[in-house]
Amino acid sequence: MSGFDNFNTDFYQSSYSVDDQGQPAGYGYSNTEDPYKQGQYDYSQPMGYAAPGMMQPQQPYTGQIYQPTPAFTPSPTQSMYGSSFDDEPPLLEELGINFDHIWQKTLTVLHPMKAADGNIMNETDLAGPMVFCLAFGATLLLTGKIQFGYVYGISVIGCLGMYCLLNLMSMTGVSFGCVASVLGYCLLPMILLASFGIIFSLQGMFGIIIAATIIGWCSFSASKIFISALAMDGQQLLVAYPCALLYGVFALISVF
């Protein structure tokens, strides 16, 4: 036994003693008392470290329930949108529909001797022409002629022809929308011719005279507007001739 004690002493020096085995959980490391005994360890003290993956305690919520603190409060004078609805233009103006200009163009067509305003006539306004084309087709429908396809088809072909011709004749050039707008507004007298066909037959001398008068009226108004908008002085007769050919086709649809 003494040999074992000598071997143990020579192998590793420690404070462990065989006599201390009866002491529970002490193991003879030190005389310090166990800090985890009841009543000795203060659990309210924060831990000095946190294990990896464990969440740190969050800050307590100091607000009121259902009443969160706003992160940004806009001033009363600041709007939530870029601009106010009061500053936006009317819907008809955004769509390019101006009833004042439509009325002025209509009066210019109905009064052939009235001087045309080039600034207004140079606008691309298709609201009035679409209404007049629809009214012309509806008037033909009252006479028993379903010619809506011919009306719109001839209108498109005539606008393309006049667009090419006016760009060759004028120095400034013209847009297709302007040509379609002017030719559409000048279709208004043709509605009167179709209205006469509802009351009496146009297949006679009286109908031919009325049709020739309406053709001259439409072509003269269209040529007047074109030379005013495009500054084509002295070329009204050259512009009125192709316009008369176009409106002559509409007159043939109305008469026959």
UniProtKB/TrEMBL annotation:
GO terms for cellular component: endoplasmic reticulum membrane; Golgi membrane; trans-Golgi network. It holds the Pfam family Yip1. It is found in: Endoplasmic reticulum membrane; Golgi apparatus membrane; Golgi apparatus, cis-Golgi network membrane. InterPro entries: Yip1/4-like, Yip1_dom. The chain crosses the membrane at residues 150-169, 176-200, 206-226, 238-255. It is a multi-pass membrane protein. Keywords: Endoplasmic reticulum, ER-Golgi transport, Golgi apparatus, Membrane, Protein transport, Transmembrane, Transmembrane helix, Transport. Residues 109-253 form the Yip1 domain. GO terms for biological process: endoplasmic reticulum to Golgi vesicle-mediated transport; protein transport; regulation of ER to Golgi vesicle-mediated transport; vesicle fusion with Golgi apparatus. Its main location: endoplasmic reticulum. Belongs to the YIP1 family. This is Protein YIPF.
